[in-house]
Amino acid sequence: MSAIDISDETFIVAPAALLQRELCDEASWRSLGLSLTCYEDRGVKGKRWRLVDNLRGTAEVWLEPAGDGVTVHVYVQADLTKPRRWSDPQKAYSHRIKRRVLDLKRHYDLQRPAGMPAVPPDGDDAPEDGKLTATNVPTKES
Predict the structure, then answer these.
(1) Tens digit of pLDDT for each residue in 43-83?
(2) Region label for 130, one of left (φ > 0), alpha (ψ between -120 and 50) or beta (otherwise)
(3) CA–CA dist 127, 130 (Å, integer)
(4) What is the number of other CB atoms lying within 10 angstroms of the CB of residue 124?
(5) Could you tell me the CA-to-CA distances from 62 to 71, 82, 109, 125, 131 in Å, in that order?
(6) Sheet of 46-52, strands arranged across
(7) Is the pTM of this model over 0.70?
(8) Does domain 4-111 have CATH number 3.30.530.20?
(9) Residue 40 and residue 71: Cα distance in Å, rounded?
(10) Nearby residues of 107 by Cβ (< 8 Å), 6 or more positions away
(11) How far is 139 from 110, CA to CA, in rounded Å?
């Protein structure tokens, strides 16, 4: 069994393409202490990496559309290659990763809570033809 084994699921009210840009960027993971090399780019479905440097193993972000948002799955399985100053590296990496995902959740969910219609891109209350879709229904603030 790996020294670090993380499996996390978080629902975020946002399009998969936006989350893919945010969560599949290697630089954002480096800030959490993870050095990654991509071995499978799955587009809006996510990305898979090999962990290099202080951890050896694999990491994955899988973006699964669900209702009006996306379930973000994050998996990390790795062993330490260098000693760390933390007494519990599993807990330390889990907290860092969860904090990163929850920051995105707070950002997007505050813009549009689950079940609320998307804000129209141009700010108009309704389309000229009068038909409302998920992208043009007025919000409470409209």
Answers:
(1) 999 999 999 888 899 999 999 999 888 999 999 999 888 76
(2) left
(3) 5
(4) 11
(5) 8, 28, 19, 34, 34
(6) 4-12, 69-80, 55-66, 46-52, 35-41
(7) yes
(8) yes
(9) 19
(10) none
(11) 13
